[in-house]
Amino acid sequence: MRTVLRRPDFRLLFGGLLASMAAESILLLALAIWVKDLTGSDGLAGATIFAIIAPMTLAPLVGWVVDRYPRRPFFVAANLVTALALTPLFAVRDSTDVWVIYTVAALYGLSYITLSAVLSGLIRHLVPAELLADANGVLQTVRQGLRLVGPLAGAGLYAALGGAGLAAVGMAGFLTAALVVGALRVTETPPTGPTLRWTTELSAGLRHLSGEPALRRALLGYGLGSLVMGFTESLIFAYVDRGLGRDAAFVGVLVTVQGVGGLVGGLLSPAVVRRAGEVGTLAAGVAFFGPAALALAYPNLWLGFAAVLMAGVSLPLTMVGLHTLIQRRTPGALLGRVAAASEAVVSGPQALSIGGGALLVGVVDYRLLFALIGVLTLLAGAYLWHGRQLSPPGAAPRPRIPAPRRPSTPVHDVVARDASASRATRS
């Protein structure tokens, strides 16, 4: 990681990202707390998180827009627009204004998808292929660290300054990010215009994900794991209440321990990528969640600490493995669409899993559900590990950008030609 941090361009980008990620982390929970404070309803507070997640359905459109513009100015503009989108929060006074918070939360969710998509391309442009894992590892380490202090800081800022003060601090973070990254000097080739019908352009990210063997296996395996990993969002409360016999506030202690594991995983992830490759690192991250879930099936305080620590380590391993794989196996012209599509493919099962866990915890013993999570994540990890040779250790060459196609080419001919090229490459 020290090597990538010695690069002046990456250090500047890192400084801007630190400001924007801090703003994101303080807003995520604080907006829900604000709704709870105004309405007294847990359900309406939880709907704030849904409002943030809902824009994920627009991921293909967001990725298509991102791919049509240079990365650095787009990143700067997106941070400025996000800061502007927070201004309606200054008008919130009572429970009749909750719709304003929901609207801002949805815009914030849309901003998160956009910034993630454009960031993937910007890092790929700034950092050599052999340092991509280090760059992603640095960012994941910081993100995990902010998970430790960000939500608590957001809640504290809301309690001390109120909603308007919280909005002002969030705006300052995004404006700082725009200012810092705006000072970055990057030479970018202007993107070419669309060469296919707009519907085909929108789906290009999903077609690349399904057509590239390593990416296809990565998303299938991670998607399988995600279908049950989200159960833990509800099960952890049952574990603390029924298993440990402690107050629900003790969940915060376990989340802190998990955050420590996230820091460790973020620091280790570049070395794991170099030893096991991107798919191998993703496999390790998913599989590492298995013993953690199995340990939580047996309620014991110290075993629980070890389990959530392992679960914390697993998250940055999966993220660094997946993001580095996408950056190395995707043409630059498609990177925004592929990054946004992968975010949607992963987040969809996670959202279903969180909802399913909330329903199942009331009718099924939480220990059986933890055991199910453990078994399925181990199977998903094994499936990914079996395909680790698709991305062997070492820096992979950057993918060649395909030649432009004529707009008049029929879509079925394009699909057939892509399929033929894929078969020829594998042969």
What does this structure look like?
- The chain is mainly α.
- It folds into 2 domains: 1-186, Up-down Bundle (Growth Hormone, Chain: A), CATH 1.20.1250; 199-394 and 406-427, Up-down Bundle (Growth Hormone, Chain: A).
- The chain is 78% helix and 0% strand.
- It is globular and about 60 Å long.
- The model is unreliable at 395-427 (pLDDT under 50).
- Residues 394-407 have a biased composition (Pro residues).
CATH class of the largest domain: Mainly Alpha
Rg (CA only): 22 Å
Based on secondary structure, the structural category is mainly alpha
How many H/I helices?
A: 16
Percent strand: under 5%
Helix content: over 70%
Count of distinct strands = 0
Supply the CATH superfamily name of the largest domain.
Answer: MFS general substrate transporter like domains
Keywords: Cell membrane, Membrane, Transmembrane, Transmembrane helix
GO molecular function, one term: transmembrane transporter activity
Domain Major facilitator superfamily (MFS) profile: 1-190
Transmembrane segments: 12-35, 47-66, 73-92, 98-123, 144-161, 167-187, 219-239, 251-272, 279-298, 304-326, 366-385
List keywords for this structure.
single chain, 427 residues, Growth Hormone, Chain: A, 2 domains, 78% helix, globular
